[in-house]
Design brief:
The chain is mainly alpha-helical. It has helices at residues 3-15, 30-41, 52-73, 77-90, 116-132, 166-183, and strands at 18-20, 23-25, 96-98, 106-108, 140-142, 151-153. It has a two-stranded antiparallel sheet with strand order 1-2. It has a two-stranded antiparallel ribbon with strand order 3-4.
């Protein structure tokens, strides 16, 4: 999986409200969410700090990308692909070779003059589309732990990941252990 897919997972989990590790998750406060998104993205993908409107626009895109993971998790590849296509169209995703900041030529999936959030949205939607277009699509998922709906991209060798984190995996194992002790 690519760095952009990993960044997509991080941003979707950071900016999408829901449940995380057994607790309600509303997202980070606006200023912190922007700083955290940039820190997670790394300097290769983050060239400047977005303003509040751009951060809100990125939050809307990540909410739509969450639906891609949820559709794959539910076994609905058609819905996942349709959603990815819609986001790519709405963000005007287009492959373009780019060179900036002393880096060698590399591929971007947004127009050079695209607004910040649209550029990010285009890159994230395209990264998911590339996964959906091959056998690795089954490696996208939503955490199986109780009261957690964070997403993941399984990069394990055997492709059997079911949890967003080791913490959720441990919570699920502990709950199963307690349930067996009550029954026994």
């Amino acid at each position: 999986m690519s760095d952009v897919v990993e960044t997509t997972v991080r941003l979707v989990n950071l900016l999408t409200p829901g449940e995380r590790r057994g607790r309600e998750y509303a997202g980070e406060p606006a200023g912190q969410e922007v700083a955290a998104a940039l820190a997670l993205a790394g300097s290769q993908y983050a060239e400047r700090l977005p303003d509040e409107a751009e951060a809100a626009e990125l939050r809307a895109v990540t909410g739509r990308l969450y639906a891609v993971f949820a559709a794959v998790d539910a076994g609905d590849l058609d819905r996942a692909c349709a959603t990815a296509n819609e986001v790519m169209a709405d963000t005007r995703a287009v492959p373009v070779l780019s060179r900036h900041g002393g880096e060698p030529w590399h591929l971007h999936f947004h127009a050079p003059d695209a607004p910040w959030a649209l550029g990010w949205g285009a890159a994230m939607a395209t990264s998911l589309a590339m996964v959906l277009g091959n056998a690795a699509f089954e490696r996208l998922g939503v955490c199986s732990a109780d009261r957690c709906d964070r997403v993941f991209a399984d990069t394990s060798r055997n492709g059997t990941r079911r949890f967003c984190s080791t913490a959720c995996q441990n919570r699920a194992k502990a709950a199963a252990f307690r349930a067996r002790r009550r029954e026994g």
